[in-house]
């Protein structure tokens, strides 16, 4: 009997120290994605278009940090057919064996414009003032004529 109780305690300890538990609800079955899975926190970069194909919830039973868990998100997403993941919630909560067990939750994504997402999204558009200064600099260097300068300035101001 004592051996059975000891074996049960060892088994419970092993479960409590297991690295990650995954709870998954996927909207549809997809082929596994074998490329680099992009993981974003909070929001997607500007201009990135994505479709949510499921949700993930990674949690540990024991103490740790969320930074290590976020690395595991890509390992969970790829086999389920996602080429991206958006972490929407993260933190620590009471676990089976600890007061501060880390967790991360979010959406599994299929990113339509993958190359743009990989580059960090749409490049920031220069301000109107910066564009006007650039035209004036080109004119000052003699690279464009007075007429070209005026035309370019009018085109920039027309976008306001």
Task: Compile the SSE list and pairings.
Layout: H1 2-16, E1 21-26, E2 38-41, E3 50-59, H2 66-77, E4 84-93, E5 101-111, H3 114-118, H4 128-140, H5 146-158
Parallel strand pairs: 2-4
Antiparallel strand pairs: 1-3, 3-5, 4-5
Helix pairs in contact: 4-5
Short synopsis of the structure:
This protein is α+β, with helices and mostly antiparallel strands and 160 residues long. It has two domains: 18-118, no CATH class; 128-158.
Describe the structure.
- The chain is α+β, with helices and mostly antiparallel strands.
- The protein folds into two domains: 18-118, no CATH class; 128-158.
- It is 36% helix and 26% strand.
- It has helices at 2-16, 66-77, 114-118, 128-140, 146-158, and strands at residues 21-26, 38-41, 50-59, 84-93, 101-111.
- Helix 4 (128-140) runs antiparallel to helix 5 (146-158).
- It starts with a helix and ends with a helix.
- 17% of the residues are buried.
Q: How widely separated are the two ends?
A: 82 Å
Count of domain modules: 2
Q: What structural class is derived from the secondary structure elements?
A: alpha+beta
Strand neighbour order, sheet with most strands: 1-3-5-4-2
Helix-strand string:
HEEEHEEHHH
> In what range is the share of β-strand residues?
25-35%
For the largest beta-sheet, the strand count, sense and barrel status come to: 5 strands, mixed
Q: Helix fraction?
A: 25-40%
Mean of residue pLDDT values? 79
Enumerate how many helices there are, as a single number: 5
Total strands: the figure is: 5
> How would the global form be characterised?
elongated
What is the CA-atom radius of gyration, in angstroms? 26 Å
Low-confidence regions: 8-22
């Amino acid at each position: 009997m004592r051996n059975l109780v000891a074996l049960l305690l060892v088994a419970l300890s092993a479960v409590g120290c297991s690295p990650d538990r995954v709870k998954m609800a996927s909207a549809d079955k997809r082929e596994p994605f074998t490329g680099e899975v992009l993981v974003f926190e909070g929001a997607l970069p500007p201009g990135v278009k994505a479709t949510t194909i499921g949700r993930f919830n990674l949690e540990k039973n024991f103490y740790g940090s969320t930074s290590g868990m976020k690395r595991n998100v890509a390992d969970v997403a790829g086999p389920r057919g996602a080429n991206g993941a958006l972490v929407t919630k993260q933190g620590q909560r009471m676990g089976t064996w600890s007061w501060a067990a880390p967790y991360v939750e979010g959406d599994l994504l299929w990113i339509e414009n993958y190359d743009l997402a990989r580059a960090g999204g749409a490049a920031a558009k220069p301000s109107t003032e910066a564009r006007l200064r650039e035209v004036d600099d080109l004119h000052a260097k003699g690279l464009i004529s007075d007429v070209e300068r005026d035309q370019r300035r009018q085109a920039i101001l027309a976008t306001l």
